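Input sequence (77 aa), recorded before submission:
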Amino acid sequence: MDDLTPERPRDAGVPEEVPEELGAIEGAFTLANEARERLRGDGFTDDQIDKWAESFITEVGAGEVDDFVDWIARMER
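Predicted structure, token format:
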């Protein structure tokens, strides 16, 4: 288990942003799906995972699942 709190980004003070470009939206969808099982294990809902992935892609641009999960942990602190 990771040191994560199952919540939406806005609950951690992170703006919930939806990527504007189709490629970024697809990237968020792919990242969410790749991280879904891992984050479900931490208690996240599918909606929370999708919102975090959209915000991550909008803010960071791209990354792997480990980058994504580490970013969530940093944003929740």
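Checked by second reader. Helices lie at 22-41, 46-59, 65-76.
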